[in-house]
């Protein structure tokens, strides 16, 4: 990868389908992004049927590989997902530590916006604060009119 947030430019890891399911679940639980779907499980292909090789059929394996590659490319290219520790672990560490403490990866991009140099996260935090403040002032106004 040429993305500066990842510590390794190249890495090679082996992952099972269940590892992709784990990553998807972790991202859905800990981040505020919409996670794309994984390619479907092949429940009907688990057992060979009349010459069909089931899940070992080359075309099935290639279709699944392409689907998983599309999934990981979408996730790895998402600016918010890039900060998630689970994604870094999934892409760059040999073994997945399923007991890790979820959170953001400490290395952050310097995304400056405008002359003030505010970081993107600060802007999001500020906008969330203003939304909460705005909702509470609307509630107070509604109570005042009663």
TrEMBL record:
InterPro entries: PX_dom, PX_dom_sf, Sorting_Nexin. It comes from the Eukaryota. One of its GO terms (molecular function) is phosphatidylinositol-3-phosphate binding. Residues 1-97 form the PX domain. PROSITE patterns: PX. GO terms for biological process: endocytic recycling; late endosome to Golgi transport; protein transport. Keywords: Lipid-binding, Protein transport, Transport. One of its GO terms (cellular component) is early endosome membrane. Belongs to the sorting nexin family. This is PX domain-containing protein.
């Amino acid at each position: 990868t040429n993305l500066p947030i990842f510590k390794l430019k190249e890495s090679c890891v082996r992952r099972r389908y269940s590892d992709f399911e784990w990553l998807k679940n972790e991202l859905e639980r800990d981040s505020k992004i919409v996670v794309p779907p994984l390619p479907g499980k092949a429940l009907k292909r688990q057992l060979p049927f009349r010459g069909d090789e089931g899940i070992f059929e080359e075309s099935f394996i290639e279709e699944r590989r392409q689907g998983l590659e599309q999934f990981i490319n979408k996730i790895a290219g998402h600016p918010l997902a890039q900060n998630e520790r689970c994604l870094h672990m999934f892409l760059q560490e040999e073994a997945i530590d399923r007991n890790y403490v979820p959170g953001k990866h400490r290395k952050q991009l310097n995304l400056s916006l405008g002359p003030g140099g505010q970081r993107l996260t600060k802007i999001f935090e500020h906008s969330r604060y203003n939304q909460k403040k705005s909702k509470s002032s609307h509630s107070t106004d509604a109570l005042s009119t009663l």
